[in-house]
């Protein structure tokens, strides 16, 4: 008789977890390894229901100084709920050979505080699920520092080329739109 009462909280917990998983948009399904950390980033747990900027980065790209502008945007909008995810990639042959150097460029050289992953494939058949879904909703990155603005439901509001600087008014307008989207 006592064991029956133990099942009720367990079933409630399991059904609650299933409900959360059901609310997670396809874009945010899965995990990615956090840069220079032993932990995994559960994309759904960390970003579901939040406006998000996703950018593929490369340590030795001529656009790497955009890290400063991205950090400024992150700091300016984070209080409004904006999250940012940087995904280093060597798909364009400009990423450091090891994650120690990648972390140095991001954290020490540019002072990045937004979430960064270990280097990942962002194009083609080897692309992570996140970037396959970003490409399905808009287009695959054509170079490093391609920027995607995602609303609270996991839909790409806009994507921007490497040439678009983080202080660009259209980029900021897309972020405003993502922030204003209903949860």
UniProtKB/TrEMBL annotation:
The active site is at residue 61. Pfam families: GSHPx. GO terms for biological process: cellular response to oxidative stress. Coiled coil: none annotated. The keyword Disulfide bond does not apply. The keyword Transcription does not apply. Residues 13-180 form the Thioredoxin domain. This is Glutathione peroxidase.
């Amino acid at each position: 008789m006592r064991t029956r009462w133990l099942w009720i909280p367990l079933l409630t917990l399991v059904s609650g977890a299933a409900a959360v998983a059901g609310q997670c948009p396809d874009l945010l399904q899965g995990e990615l390894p956090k840069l220079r950390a032993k932990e995994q980033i559960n994309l759904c747990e960390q970003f579901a229901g939040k406006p998000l900027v996703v950018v593929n980065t490369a340590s030795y790209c001529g656009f790497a100084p955009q890290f400063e502008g991205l950090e400024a945007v992150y700091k300016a909008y984070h209080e409004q709920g904006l999250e940012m995810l940087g995904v280093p990639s060597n798909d364009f042959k400009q990423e450091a050979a090891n994650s120690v150097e990648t972390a140095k460029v991001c954290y020490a050289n540019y002072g990045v505080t937004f979430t960064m992953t270990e280097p990942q494939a962002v194009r083609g058949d080897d692309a992570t699920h996140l970037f396959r879904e970003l490409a399905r909703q808009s287009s695959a990155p054509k170079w490093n520092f391609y920027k995607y603005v995602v609303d609270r439901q996991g839909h790409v509001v806009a994507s921007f080329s490497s040439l678009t600087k983080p202080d660009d008014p259209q980029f900021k307008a897309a972020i405003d739109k993502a922030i204003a989207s209903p949860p």
